[in-house]
Specification:
The protein is α/β, with parallel strands linked by helices. The chain folds into two domains: 151 residues, Ribonuclease E inhibitor RraA/RraA-like (Glucose Oxidase, domain 1, 3-Layer(bba) Sandwich), CATH 3.50.30; 34 residues. 34% of the residues lie in helices and 26% in strands. The strands form two sheets. Strands 1, 2, 3, 4, 5, 6, 9 and 10 form an eight-stranded mixed sheet that branches. The protein has a two-stranded antiparallel ribbon with strand order 7-8. The longest helix is centred in the C-terminal third of the chain and has 23 residues. It is elongated, with a radius of gyration of 19 Å. The chain starts with a helix and ends with a helix.
């Protein structure tokens, strides 16, 4: 379980800082668990998303229809609406290349916001940016005009979004820089490490701005 105070702490810092704190609290996670390619962020000024992963795979190039298609969509909505919340929907577009059609637009952002979703991280595409639900964040591999034949393949399954492997229920932190899976058993240690990290960075930056040259900067790095 993640406490309200832990969620508040995570919301107070940006995603690069979260990655730095994970490096301190869980050194083995230094090189994994985060997105490693550029994601378009149409709303860079929104605060960080901190929510539990709802994982989905989609395809958009090939048509799909029939009663089974609609039933899966309805079951998917039940999945998104269920606890834990708030959620961040992680959509892996399985097409090659991904992004042929957009899952996210005016309708889906409003529907998902109503179901307790803060936003999405996807390797696929998004559209209807100016008509999207207010406050709904989107990090996407592409921006495009059409939804094509978009359909849900599976949900509640492991996904990989631009190098970030995640499973349903993982705690996700994301902002304009990208996204990272937060190890929930390390949040307390991350919080304890924040003050020291901020002081270290402030010391180095102050030395860099002091005009005292390389030796002052080296001394700051040495602590």
């Amino acid at each position: 379980m993640v406490s309200a105070s832990e969620l508040a702490f995570l919301r107070s810092v940006d995603t690069p800082t979260v990655c730095n704190l994970i490096e301190i609290a869980a050194p083995e996670r230094r090189g994994s668990g985060y997105t490693v390619r550029h994601l378009h962020c149409p709303f860079p000024d929104l605060p960080p998303m901190v929510g539990f992963a709802k994982t989905v795979t989609i395809r958009t190039r090939d048509a799909v229809s029939g009663p089974g298609y609609m039933q899966k969509r309805l079951e998917y909505m039940d999945y998104v609406a269920a606890e834990p919340r708030p959620s961040v929907v992680l959509i892996e577009d399985l097409d090659d290349p991904p992004g042929y059609g957009a899952f996210w637009g005016e309708v889906q952002t409003n529907v998902h916001k109503a179901l307790g979703c803060l936003g999405t991280v996807t390797n696929g595409s998004v559209r209807d940016i100016t008509a999207s639900a207010e406050g709904f964040q989107m990090l996407a591999g592409a921006v495009g005009p059409s939804h094509a034949y978009v359909h849900v393949v599976e949900f509640g399954v492991p996904v990989n979004i631009h190098g970030m492997a995640a499973k349903s229920g993982d705690l996700i932190h994301a902002d304009r820089h990208g996204a990272v899976v937060v190890p929930t058993d390390k949040i307390e240690a991350m919080q304890a490490a924040l003050d020291g990290l901020m002081k270290q960075e402030a010391r180095i930056i102050a030395a860099a701005k002091s005009g005292h040259g390389v030796e002052a900067i080296k001394a700051a790095f040495r602590g």
